[in-house]
């Protein structure tokens, strides 16, 4: 049976470190990390995510400002708010919750955030730094950063000689995690919806990262015995066994079958999900230190 990489426990350790370093920053330098979270519209899942980011930020001792904008807010008004926050000395990180309403170009908005306050790590400058190996100087997107902490937990920092397969090529997860695995010396393959014989590709992986968004797509017999399996997917599926109309969360990996074969595995829920928020807090603390020319605390 695989060793389970407990994302809840790992994320709590990171949050405790962020909280401790924030207290030191406030005491020694009178600096309080500040995060601004902008949400446009009424998407219920986005509201839940934003509430939990706000709660974690407050627990860490951050200034946390939430901007809840009407669904009909114009792109120009949203860009004006982002520009105002770019200039705000008390705000070190700006996060615009996605998805945005269809009439707003999300890319325009993200590229308007100052790269120095881009704690989601989606700005071209930060994406470019990650692709060129200037990772220490970048804001690394939170989910890929959390995935790397989990991989390191199982395998250590140097992945020399290991084959990694990332299933999914999104800008938010697949591409940046592939770049981070490459920087850690893994030999990386990126698979996607046009990949042929994807089951065989997955079978070659010592490290398999599934970021697809298809419930339990990766089967137990796609996994190399002893592999490290990181399941990023969050999929809500019907759960009639819990009662009529009830649902449950599953990942992109058939967990029950995979845990019998893998060496390390992350559960859903309680795996990558909690790590994402913890890394957002770590990025915000880093942004506050960078803005004040202070050394970056070691968090993970
Ligand atoms: N735990 C967290 O904190 C966290 C954070 C972000 C995302 N997620 C979850 O992770 C999953 C992926 O998110 P995302 O934003 O990366 O999704 P996305 O932007 O929809 O990308 C999905 C990727 O999967 C590929 N794909 C789709 N169907 C496939 C198939 N049958 N075989 C192989 N590849 C296939 C797509 O290929 P093409 O490019 O060819 O279309 C695409 O590259 C979702 O379930 C999401 O909810 C979790």
From TrEMBL:
Boundaries of every Tetrahydrofolate dehydrogenase/cyclohydrolase NAD(P)-binding domain copy: 141-290
Reaction catalysis annotation: (6R)-5,10-methenyltetrahydrofolate + H2O = (6R)-10-formyltetrahydrofolate + H(+); (6R)-5,10-methylene-5,6,7,8-tetrahydrofolate + NADP(+) = (6R)-5,10-methenyltetrahydrofolate + NADPH
InterPro entries to which the protein is assigned, alphabetical: Aminoacid_DH-like_N_sf, NAD(P)-bd_dom_sf, THF_DH/CycHdrlase, THF_DH/CycHdrlase_cat_dom, THF_DH/CycHdrlase_CS, THF_DH/CycHdrlase_NAD-bd_dom
Residues engaged in binding NADP(+): 168-170, 234
Keyword Oxidoreductase: yes
Pfam families: THF_DHG_CYH, THF_DHG_CYH_C
EC numbers for this chain: 1.5.1.5, 3.5.4.9
Keywords: Amino-acid biosynthesis, Histidine biosynthesis, Hydrolase, Methionine biosynthesis, Multifunctional enzyme, NADP, One-carbon metabolism, Oxidoreductase, Purine biosynthesis
GO cellular component: cytosol
PANTHER family (UniProt xref): C-1-TETRAHYDROFOLATE SYNTHASE, CYTOPLASMIC (PTHR48099:SF5), C-1-TETRAHYDROFOLATE SYNTHASE, CYTOPLASMIC-RELATED (PTHR48099)
Described function: Catalyzes the oxidation of 5,10-methylenetetrahydrofolate to 5,10-methenyltetrahydrofolate and then the hydrolysis of 5,10-methenyltetrahydrofolate to 10-formyltetrahydrofolate.
Family: Belongs to the tetrahydrofolate dehydrogenase/cyclohydrolase family.
Subunit details: Homodimer.
Protein's UniProt name: Bifunctional protein FolD
Species the sequence originates in: Bartonella choladocola
Annotated gene: folD
């Amino acid at each position: 049976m695989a060793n389970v990489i407990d994302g809840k426990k790992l994320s709590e350790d990171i949050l405790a470190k962020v909280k401790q370093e924030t207290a030191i920053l406030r005491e020694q330098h009178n600096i309080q990390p500040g995060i601004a979270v902008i949400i446009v519209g009424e998407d219920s899942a986005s509201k839940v995510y934003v509430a939990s980011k706000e709660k974690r930020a407050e627990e860490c001792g951050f200034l946390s400002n939430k901007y809840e904008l009407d669904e009909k807010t114009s792109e120009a008004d949203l860009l004006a708010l982002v520009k105002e926050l770019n200039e705000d000395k008390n705000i070190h990180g700006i996060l615009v919750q996605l998805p945005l309403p269809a009439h707003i170009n999300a890319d325009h908005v993200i590229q308007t955030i100052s790269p120095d306050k881009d704690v989601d790590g989606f700005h071209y400058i930060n994406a470019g730094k990650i692709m060129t190996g200037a990772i220490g100087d970048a804001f690394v997107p939170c989910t890929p950063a959390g995935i790397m902490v989990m991989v390191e937990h199982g395998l250590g920092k140097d992945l020399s000689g290991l084959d990694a397969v990332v299933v999914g090529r999104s800008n938010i997860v697949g591409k940046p995690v592939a770049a981070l695995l490459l920087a850690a010396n893994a030999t990386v393959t990126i698979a996607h919806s046009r990949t042929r014989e994807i089951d065989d590709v997955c079978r070659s992986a010592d490290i398999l990262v599934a970021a697809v968004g298809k419930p339990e797509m990766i089967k137990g017999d796609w996994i190399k015995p002893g592999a490290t399996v990181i399941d990023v997917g969050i999929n809500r599926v019907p759960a009639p066994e819990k009662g009529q109309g009830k649902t449950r969360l599953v990942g992109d990996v058939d967990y029950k079958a995979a845990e019998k074969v893998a060496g390390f595995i992350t559960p859903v829920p309680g795996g990558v999900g909690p790590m994402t928020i913890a890394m957002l807090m770590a990025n915000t603390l880093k942004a506050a230190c960078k803005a004040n020319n202070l050394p970056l605390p070691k968090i993970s």
